[in-house]
């Protein structure tokens, strides 16, 4: 059950964000009330299932030592769900492990995301207003 949606700008160091999560964990509230930000796009149920399958396949390939094949699978998932930061981070961890171990380099991640988004706009993957292009599910 989804109880809290916040697209972009979530920061565990932000008191409001941290308090909302803590109250959910402690059972003090059942959902976060207040201003919500609409999702930048919505995937159909089938698209969600495909993304999840590609993520699992990529994880299994990576576990088997087939890094390049895993990255290819995750990139296919990212094309379906370009706003999914989890997918991007899986790719980055496989391609740039030194940025994640022994310490996660958050500044590098921020810069990498900016570089990738700029490239996506330049190549037409995303629109001039940013990534991802809005899509509406046919449900």
Kindly describe this structure.
The protein is mostly helical and 139 residues long. The chain has 2 domains: 1-38, no CATH class; 45-122, Alpha Horseshoe (Serine Threonine Protein Phosphatase 5, Tetratricopeptide repeat), CATH 1.25.40. Helix content is 53%, strand content 0%. It contains 5 helices and no strands. The protein has helices at residues 15-26, 45-63, 67-80, 85-95, 106-122. Helix 2 packs antiparallel against helix 3 (67-80) and helix 3 runs antiparallel to helix 4. The chain is globular and about 45 Å long. The relative contact order is 0.11.
Could you give a quick summary of the protein structure above?
The chain has five helices and no strands. It is mostly helical.
Helices and strands in order, then pairings?
Elements: H1 15-26, H2 45-63, H3 67-80, H4 85-95, H5 106-122
Helix pairs in contact: 2-3, 3-4
Distance between the termini: 19 Å
Mean pLDDT score = 83
Helix content: 40-55%
Q: Percent of residues in beta strands?
A: under 5%
> How many DSSP helices?
5
Which key phrases capture this entry?
139 residues; mainly alpha; Serine Threonine Protein Phosphatase 5, Tetratricopeptide repeat; 2 domains; 53% helix; 0% strand
